[in-house]
Amino acid sequence: MSRNNILVLAIVLFLSGCQSMNGSRPNYVAPDAKAAELNMRLGLNYLQRGDYEIALEKLEKALKQDPGLSPAHNTIALLYQRISVNDKAEYHFKQAIRYEPDYSQAHNNFGVFLCQVGRYKEAEQSFLEAVKNPLYRSTAQAYENAGLCVSRIPDAVLAKSYLRKALQYNPNLSKALLQMAEIHYDEQGYMRARAYIERYRTESRWTPRALLLAIKIEHKLGDKNAVSSYRVLLKGKFPDSDEALIVEKGNF
Predict the structure, then answer these.
(1) Tens digit of pLDDT for each residue in 23-60?
(2) Residue 116, by phi and psi: left (phi above 0), alpha (psi -120 to 50) or beta?
(3) Residue 24 has what DSSP assignment?
């Protein structure tokens, strides 16, 4: 599987996770709470725009004004993750969770970070912490992330379990559908793999990776017309991709 698969989804999730469902500091009011909140939001905006220097300045200011502001810790952790300062990213993810243990988005984001650095079992536990909160609105994505991550161990049985849960919450998750297709292909369950790739194509735009998998599935099932059709799509849409070169050489 693509090593970027989980991260593409994760960045989108990261930037929506600025509020936790249940705060754990109801009796604490920072001296500059409103200013800290404002600077945190400004920092997030600059992060989204890719202006990391100003984003960092705003987020550090927010944390000086309110050291226990979990969304600010979460956001600055994302910034450090983007610029590959992993020790600081981990520190701030842990601070976000320390101040708000029920902050599901921070648990999910920390899980993505842990998976990115190869700590798969720790990442799995972080995703499971995220879904404990019944009010969490991104449960499907957290289960999807868990499935994608444990696929790297690799643990196909566990991955299928999490991906099925993700698809129960949201049947249209394209990355979960594609990963299920890949797992069933690897297990020689070509009919099931075809079913998932067909669901995938109704929910998402084709990628080189998905088209190559579709070609491989139809090749195994002996459908020459489907193979030809997918080959034309791959060559037309992604002529310079590694996948197009693989198919051109017949290495599938």
Answers:
(1) 445 445 566 889 999 999 999 999 999 999 999 999 99
(2) alpha
(3) S
208 has pLDDT over 60:
yes
Query: Are 120 and 6 a contacting pair, CB within 8 Å?
Result: no
Question: Cβ of 242: how many Cβ atoms within 10 Å?
Answer: 11
Question: Which residues neighbour 209 within 8 Å (Cβ) at sequence distance 6 or greater?
Answer: 2, 178, 243
What's the CA gap between 239 and 233, in Å, rounded? 9
pLDDT at 12 over 70: no
Euclidean distance between CA atoms 141 and 104, whole angstroms: 11
Give, in degrees to the nearest 5, the angle at Cα 162 between 92 and 105: 25
Give the fold, CATH level 3, of 171-252. 1.25.40
How far is the C-alpha of 224 from the C-alpha of 121, rounded, in Å? Answer: 41
Pick from 218, 203, 207: which is nearest to 244 by CA?
Answer: 207
pLDDT tens-place string over residues 94-149 = 999 999 999 999 999 999 999 999 999 999 999 999 999 999 999 999 999 999 99
Give the start-to-end residue ranges of the domains of the chain. Answer: 171-252
Tokens found for residue 241: 């991709």
Q: Please report the sign of the dihedral spanned by the C-alpha atoms of residue 127, residue 132, residue 136, residue 137.
A: positive
Please provide the average confidence, as pLDDT, over all residues in the chain: 90
What pLDDT does residue 252 have?
Answer: 83
For residue 45, what pLDDT is reported?
97
Q: Within a 13 Å sphere around the CA of 42, how many CA atoms are in the beta-carbon half? A: 16
CB contact at 8 A, 234 and 218:
no
Q: Which two tokens stand for residue 149?
A: 């991550």
Kindly state the tokens that stand for 39.
């600077």
